[in-house]
Amino acid sequence: MLSAEIRKGLFRKGGVIVEFFIDGRSAGRSLSGGDGVAYRAFTAQKTGLFRVTVTTEEERAEGLLLCLKRGQAILLIDIETLKENPFSLIPRKDSREVIRRLKRRFPVVYLYAGLMSGKDIKEWLMKNGFPSAPLLAFHEGIFSHIQELGLAIRAVVGSAQVAKSAGSYRIKTFAFEDIEGAIEVDSWLELEKKI
Q1: What residues form DSSP beta bridges with 91?
Q2: Taking the CB of the first residue and of the last residue of the chain, which one, N or C, has fewer CB atoms within 10 A?
Q3: Residue 21, strand partner residues
Q4: pTM given for the model
Q5: How far apart are CA 63 and CA 12, in angstroms?
Q6: How many whole angstroms separate alpha carbon 87 and alpha carbon 89?
């Protein structure tokens, strides 16, 4: 079920006609209810990454929808591992190219736990030429939540916080620093060979 929350300032707004698009094709229109949310049923005919666009008379928003089969393995990548260091906005060498190649083999999902907002991270990823992928906020229960959805986790590429959490679930984890339970790698090219 797709949903779009309509707001006017701080308040949700009902009674707004919302049109949903999947990869540029209309999936239909819905009216937002008293809670300010419009819903639209969508059943994917294939697995993959879909671009979802929602429009009203006044606004437009976009997002990504990753549709997978039960049991399919995904690769989780912590945004912090894409940067040279936690205080830098410079991409780590070879990260973009390796992720493009890995996306041909596994569905990729980005995780973020740092100080940047999701919107700022999406802009940074786009500006620096990283491939499109869903972006999830990291929290301690995220790995069990993904497993409860019936998905497998192929591997996690994480900074200290993410790698330690993944290690407690016995998930294959890679890190660019020495973290107990994680496989330490020096570069994205080395990581690509080990995955």
Answers
A1: 83
A2: N
A3: 26, 53
A4: 0.86
A5: 19
A6: 7
Find, among 105, 98, 106, 104, the residue nearest to 74 by Cα: 106
**Do residues 86 and 114 make contact, with C-beta atoms less than 8 angstroms apart?**
yes
pLDDT digits (tens, 9 = 90+) for 156-179: 999 999 999 998 888 999 999 999
Sign of CA dihedral 162, 109, 130, 124: negative
Half-sphere exposure of 95 (CA within 13 A, CB side): 22
Buried b (16+ CB within 10 A) or exposed e, 4-14: bebeeeeebee
Over the stretch 23-57, which tens digit does the pLDDT of each residue have? Answer: 999 999 999 999 999 999 999 999 999 999 999 99
42 contacts 2 by C-beta, under 8 angstroms: yes
How far apart CA 109 and CA 162 sit, in angstroms, is 13
- For the chain, the distance separating the N- and C-terminal CA atoms, rounded to the nearest angstrom, is 33
